[in-house]
From TrEMBL:
Pathway stated in the Swiss-Prot or TrEMBL entry: Amino-acid biosynthesis; L-serine biosynthesis; L-serine from 3-phospho-D-glycerate: step 3/3
Source domain of life: Eukaryota
Gene3D superfamilies hit by this protein: HAD superfamily/HAD-like, Phosphoserine phosphatase, domain 2
Pfam families the UniProt entry points to: HAD
Species this chain originates from: Prorocentrum cordatum
EC numbers on record: 3.1.3.3
Secretion signal, residue range per the UniProt entry: 1-28
Cofactor(s) this protein requires: Mg(2+)
Name of the protein this chain belongs to: phosphoserine phosphatase
Amino acid sequence: MAAPAPRRSRAALLAVLGGLAAWGGSRAFLFGGSDPEPGSPEAIERVKGLLLKADAVFFDVDSTVVKTEGIDLMGKCFGVMKEIAALTHKAMDGNVKFQDAMADRLQLMADHGMTRDGLEECVVKEGVPQWSPGVQEVVKMFHKQGTEVYLVSGGFKNMLYPLALELHIPQDKVYANEVLFDENGEYAGFDRKNPTAASGGKPKVLNMMRRKHGYKTMIMFGDGATDMDARTQGPAAAFVGYGGVTVRPNIKAGADWFIQNFQEILDVLPKGHAL
Ligand SMILES: [Mg+2]
């Protein structure tokens, strides 16, 4: 005779679970915070406010600051661009361990003549930046408002230093990987101790910088999943997804604010603010 009651409670339970499932999609529920739904007008307004008070902003480089992928350019220098690009895309889709993908790609280039001299020549030949439109102005405006600007990349310092120089970002604010060579200038692996040499490298760098400088508001910009990690698995207050080169559905859906053009950021930052 107790049958109707459990049926009713089961229905009630299902209703509650259904509600939880619907709710579970929101970051507010998952992370227990009060941040608005990624991409919502409230989330975008929140990011705009944070951009004006950020202590530090962190830019991914490949397909964000520049339209290119540094390692593909290196591949081009050594005649293995197609093979390298295929490995890069495999790594981006998250199917390969980051370290393994990097070791494979570097070894492939070493097998095709990547020595210290060869890499230096490559940087000169392919290192001319193909900027994403507006990014140089964005960096300039952040500098003007007193926000520190960092480059954080899974790419290589050799390819990034010329970009950093043009953006007036000092080398100690460039976090990226390092190719190693032996005393004869032959390829000798890469620096595996580097935070960016492993999965989860970007959140790690942001955590390091927060500890070192006591930053309260940090914002990450990027086009890929490893960039969004700085927000979901790290201390970034916001993640701005950039789709000006490649639009990735997971980034478009998960970014607090997904932009197609850096002009959208310039429209928020104060113009002509004196130093
Ligand atoms: Mg990228």
